[in-house]
Amino acid sequence: QYRGVNELRKLYLDFFESKEHLRMKSFSLVPHNDNSLLIINSGMAPLKPYFTGQEIPPKRRVTTCQKCIRTGDIENVGKTARHGTFFEMLGNFSFGDYFKTEAIHWSWEFLTEVVGIDPDRLYPSVYVDDDEAFEIWNKEIGVAADRIYRFGKEDNFWEHGAGPCGPCSEIYYDRGEKYGTGPEDVMGGEGDRFMEVWNNVFSQFNNDGKGNYTELVQKNIDTGMGLERLAVVVQDVDSIFDVDTLQALRDKVCEIAGVKYKDSEKQDVSIRVITDHIRSVTFMVSDGIMPSNEGRGYVLRRLLRRAARHGRLLGINHKFLGELCETVIEGSKDGYPELEEKKTFILKVISEEEDKFNKTIDQGLTILNDMMDELAKNNSKVLSGADTFKLYDTYGFPIDLTKEILEEKDITVDEEGFKAAMEEQRVKARNARKTTNYMGADATVYDDIDPAISSEFVGYDKLTNEGEV
Ligand code: ATP
Ligand code: MG
Ligand code: MG
Ligand code: MG
């Protein structure tokens, strides 16, 4: 049966409400009282104080659909079928209430009965020595033993530094051979054939930070399922960019650019990148994050500029992000009414930032043209590392754009020289920042944020991985 994203969200929350969970609204993308995390990246992240016992939850069973951003996945966006920087995570949580048995039974009931997914396509994984979870899947649910995979710590033990941690059990959906037959297209592999849909974390231990594990008095359940991925399975489509709400957005991108989806792989990557990034941008602004040169504002600026940049790659040469933003709001206001309420504000912020980016590009182009004239005079076909770096650092001109424009004239960039100049700058900046503090942390912790607006922008893995389900 066909179900839209907005309907699936509701089905999930209704289901867990019927299992006596308190339905709570998505928390803001901006963490509250949590210096360890820049942006909320999982359903459990804003609930941490309830897991650690620091705060008393309003009820011992809670369910949410949490807006999440993972810039650590940015390299995958547009390339895999299942990653966005922005996504919604459905979750049911137990703070010292129910444990493994109920969690597994309910996840199975929801997927196979409520949503009607074919059980023969589902494969659970458990932590290598978690016999208890294995038995529940095998004996109680009736999944054949050879369909239950035991994976090691890397995949199936959730922990982050000291504090509550434990084994987890994930549910994968086999999308069939047409989604890949390579070595990675196996259960638990990185390919897109077996798609991880749901992660059930059994936080039953406490790690004292020195690697000593003790059983927790309060055993918790923390689960997370990507709403878009669930929709991929239910709607039987190729990727998260083909589910109803994202498809509407994708179509809008194509309409504005005057291109067709599935005409060229290179264009498709740009279309998907824009489709994803504009969602992150819209939701970040709606949560009060403003473009800036540091912290969250910096992430916002980079995502917005990356979207604008891919727009240029598609041949769009006018302002377009505002129009897309309206489509995001239209598609998601059902679950997030605040989008509609703050619409004017969101559009204004995005429009101003897009203007700034366009000015940067125009200015950079003028300078680059001068540099090219100079090269022609000297009969040179290589732009020096110093000049490339100057464009990028002083004028904020994206390096991939520099390369592309030069390519048309058969000019290359001295990449080694560029890297050397960048490294020199990095060391200088790092030394300067060692003494400053940012949100209670040594400001250098954000050095992983690549300052380039390029395909090399990898976000800040270490931070986003913190508190992942
Ligand atoms: P993957 O291995 O596919 O990258 P993950 O193991 O990193 O996923 P978890 O940290 O376990 O994901 O998060 C719980 C759930 O959230 C996943 O099972 C998936 O459904 C969803 N999810 C995680 N990352 C993304 C993303 N970048 N885009 C969309 N959904 C995601
Ligand atoms: Mg991941
Ligand atoms: Mg995984
Ligand atoms: Mg996982």
TrEMBL record:
Intracellular or extracellular location(s): Cytoplasm
Note on how the cofactor is bound: Binds 1 zinc ion per subunit.
EC number: 6.1.1.7
Main location: cytoplasm
GO biological process, one term: alanyl-tRNA aminoacylation
GO molecular function: alanine-tRNA ligase activity; aminoacyl-tRNA deacylase activity; ATP binding; catalytic activity, acting on a protein; transferase activity; tRNA binding; zinc ion binding
Top-rank taxon, per record: Bacteria
Major enzyme class: ligase
GO CC, any one term: cytosol
Reactions catalysed: tRNA(Ala) + L-alanine + ATP = L-alanyl-tRNA(Ala) + AMP + diphosphate
Keywords (A to Z) from UniProt: Aminoacyl-tRNA synthetase, ATP-binding, Cytoplasm, Ligase, Metal-binding, Nucleotide-binding, Protein biosynthesis, RNA-binding, tRNA-binding, Zinc
Cofactor or coenzyme needed: Zn(2+)
UniProt family annotation: Belongs to the class-II aminoacyl-tRNA synthetase family.
Domain notes: Consists of three domains; the N-terminal catalytic domain, the editing domain and the C-terminal C-Ala domain. The editing domain removes incorrectly charged amino acids, while the C-Ala domain, along with tRNA(Ala), serves as a bridge to cooperatively bring together the editing and aminoacylation centers thus stimulating deacylation of misacylated tRNAs.
Function in brief: Catalyzes the attachment of alanine to tRNA(Ala) in a two-step reaction: alanine is first activated by ATP to form Ala-AMP and then transferred to the acceptor end of tRNA(Ala). Also edits incorrectly charged Ser-tRNA(Ala) and Gly-tRNA(Ala) via its editing domain.
Protein name: Alanine--tRNA ligase
Native species: Lachnospira pectinoschiza
Gene for this chain: alaS
